[in-house]
Amino acid sequence: MISRLGLRFVALGYLALLLVFPVAMVFARAFQDGVVAAWQAVTTPEALHALWLTILVAAIAVTANTVFGIICAIVLVRHRFRGRNLLDAVLDLPLAISPVVVGLSLLILYSLTSPVGAWLAQYGVRIVFSTPGIVLATIFVSLPFVVREVMPVLREIGTEQEQAASTLGASPFQIFRMITLPAIRQGVAYGVVLTTARAIGEFGAVSVVSGKISGVTETMTVFVADRFQNFDLVGCYAASVVLAVIAIGTLLLTNLFEPREDR
Amino acid sequence: MSIAVCNVSKRFNDFVALDDVSVEAPTGSLTALLGPSGSGKSTLLRAIAGLDDPDSGQIIISGEDKTGMPPQRRGVGFVFQHYAAFKHMTVFDNVAFGLKIRKHPKDVIRKNVNELLELVQLDGFAGRYPTQLSGGQRQRMALARALAVEPQVLLLDEPFGALDAQVRQELRAWLRRLHDDLNVTTILVTHDQEEAMEVSDRIVLMNHGRIEQVGGPQDLYEDPASKFVMEFIGPVNRLGDTYVRPHDIEIQLSANGSTSEATVENLIYLGFEVRVELALKDGRKLWAQVTREDARQLDLEGGKQVHVRMVHSRVFDRANEESPAEDSL
Q1: Nearest CA distance, A198 vs chain B (angstrom)
Q2: Number of domains present in the structure of chain A
Q3: pTM for this one?
Q4: Hey, is the C-beta of B86 within 8 angstroms of any chain A C-beta?
Q5: Does residue A16 lie within any of the structural domains?
Q6: For residue B254, what are the β-bridge partners?
Q7: Contact by Cβ (8 Å): B117, B125
């Protein structure tokens, strides 16, 4: 009994000290000058633009990584081809490489002095110091989550249900829509949550490629850092609270994806 | 509605799964593909369904060449060993799946599905999910799902393999009756010779990707074409090249010209039947199957000296050719 209590104390204490306490501090600091001050701090044009840009970038990155993540997972699990193991290993690259390095590599690749950047500039496409660069950086760092969540689920469900559907007359697309997708739904949902959290929270790569232009290329995390450096602590903490609320909201959303038969 | 397989071969890397197999299943028949694991029986069934593509040969269903066609266009119903239930759908939606794909009107679907659920004795289970059903119920649901699209042929891949003995026994008898009612040309894959003999009217016995023998259950038992058939269908004693069924060994108390001396080593009572384990004078072992009544009349017990005679035996030499049986031990 004592050891059980002790174990619980360690686990909860660890969570409280390292997780709950710092987040609670942010909330407390954000509202130290009252709700009105906090509200005003996050409704300035710069803050609203940063929020809008964060949501836009996250939406694009999550959509792209979900669609391509499901395709990648199917190819990696169901297909046998040369280089499959290599592709599998490359997928974890975004987790291994520091985001700052990712940002720098994008900067080198797409800057106006590089061949690629110069070629794109001819057609009026600008990647670095603008939204496309932020989107590319965010896609890069949040790429593995959907693939990694979907792959084990795909392996577990096997191919018999899909084969059964094919003998019943379903086309490959119908099989995907009516059998495969519902079966991997939970994996996809969890992958989307992780991707969203990563996309919203990304700082390193984005701060490098965005150029941190206030009101133009500032995302929420860059905005938080900017406020902090300008000694606007209320603005900094209030923006942090907004980020935390979005993350918690995403987590709650996944509960909608719980499998029906368990309800 | 017949099925014809012509010269079908299939390799998986170095493994020859099907070696130039030709076989037919006549309209309305219930054919069992029987054989040990790795004999190619499942591969053959999957080739007929279009789930595996053979390397060469033709698959003809109802006179139509279906070789190379996807499963969707073969008009087959397929039942898997592990049910392949659509886990996120209710029993009703599972059975309705093929009809929804074919865009039948809703009221027609409801009527058909309810009739099918009654047929497989699952009426009242329509709203349940597969995880809430027993193995036997899931397999009946899978069968109803396959029957819903009115397939030309029904293919069953070890359908009772994952069920326990009693349920398996019940479902065999039920499947036999169902087939008699519906008369859909059916092929059943099984490794269980008893199941094949009990359910089917024709058995195709396979080994190493080839067909050993095709015939009725009685033909295979009484007139095996090879020693493999002899050994696979029913129990057998092997003495050199001589094969004898345990019930073809007669035990007598007195010697005559055609008997050999033997010692009773052990008696195993299996209800009506008694298994008598015997040792010949030269040390070779065999066992005989006698009735309880015979065992009592002969007063059999361990250690008793008896005389045995082979009523009927077969000799297969090394080349697997049958030669005239000799009646001596």
Answers
A1: 30
A2: 1
A3: 0.83
A4: yes
A5: no
A6: none
A7: yes
